[in-house]
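[job 4417] fold queue: 2 targets
>>> target A
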Amino acid sequence: MSHPQDIEQRLTDLEVKASFTEDLVDHLNQTIVRQQAQIDRLTRELVSLREQMAAADAGGPRSLRDELPPHY
């Protein structure tokens, strides 16, 4: 049969583990929130770039000079 001291120690160990687990979950949650904000920002930038490309393509014919590689 377990001694009261053993049970107390096991309970303390479980409380410590629960505390570390809670801290880890909080940290992971903060990381997910930051990553989602970054994904949202990058998505808005992508939409903006696509709109700029569509506007540039609709601007009429482009000069052949614009098509030359940069080393010419």
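>>> target B
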Amino acid sequence: MYFEIIGNIENIENIAVGGRINDIMRLRKQYGLGRWRKLKGIAKVRLQSGKIYGAEVHWYEAHGIGRKKMKIKRLLD
């Protein structure tokens, strides 16, 4: 599903860090070594249809590599 983040992501929380991430081997192989974290937060998103919703988003992030594999877990509005 294609979507675009509008504005800032709020209420950011860690879900898992390092070896506690299920996909850690895939992340390291695909993007490189780093202190990988799985995070979640609330953001306004614009869907491919053009509609704007509040959504809970999850993603992986590492210092120096950035935000990867962002996905919408659920729509709030």
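[job 4417] complete. Note on B: The CA atoms of residues 16 and 22 lie 9 Å apart.
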